[in-house]
From TrEMBL:
Sequence similarity: Belongs to the bacterial ribosomal protein bL21 family.
Designated name of the protein: Large ribosomal subunit protein bL21
Any one of the GO BP annotations: translation
Quaternary structure, from the entry: Part of the 50S ribosomal subunit. Contacts protein L20.
GO molecular function, one term: structural constituent of ribosome
Bias kind Low complexity: ranges: 111-128
This protein's GO CC annotations: cytoplasm; ribonucleoprotein complex; ribosome
Keywords, comma-separated and alphabetical: Ribonucleoprotein, Ribosomal protein, RNA-binding, rRNA-binding
Region spans: Disordered: 106-128
InterPro entries: bL21-like, bL21-like_sf, Ribosomal_bL21
Functional summary from the UniProt entry: This protein binds to 23S rRNA in the presence of protein L20.
Length: 128
């Protein structure tokens, strides 16, 4: 049996035992997280979500993706150019079980993205 879940703006087809790389989640290595936005599980298709369904996964590690380099060059005389790089932070997960029903009553914490606002980051930098 498999499920289709949605997290980080992307959809993943998963089975128990699969290892996924998803957008960074607010969880530490060894934590269990539950995804509640399930689009399909087994032969049940949601409209748009399957109510009461969930996918439980264990966090393996937080990693960084390969570096992506962007280069902008403006033509002609007196032009400028800019090179920037970015490494997306990812969370490595291992799917442990698929719950067709009863996900609402489980004691596993729901998976949420790790977002830090600029104001919080700036305040933390000033405090240090």
């Amino acid at each position: 049996m498999f499920a289709v879940l949605k997290t980080g703006g992307k959809q993943y087809r998963v089975q128990p035992g699969d290892v996924l790389r998803v957008e960074k989640l607010a969880a530490e290595a060894g934590d269990k997280v539950q995804f509640n936005e399930i689009l399909m599980i087994g032969s049940t298709i949601g409209a748009p979500l399957v109510s009461g369904a969930g996918v439980v996964a264990e966090v393996i590690d937080t990693i960084k993706a390969d570096k992506v380099i962007t280069f902008h060059k403006r033509r002609r005389k007196h032009s400028s150019q800019r090179t920037r790089g970015h490494r997306q932070q990812l969370t490595l997960l291992r799917v442990t079980e698929l719950l067709e029903t009863g996900a609402d009553a489980s004691d596993v914490k729901p998976a949420t993205g790790a977002r830090v606002s600029r104001r919080t980051a700036a305040t933390t930098a000033q405090e240090i």
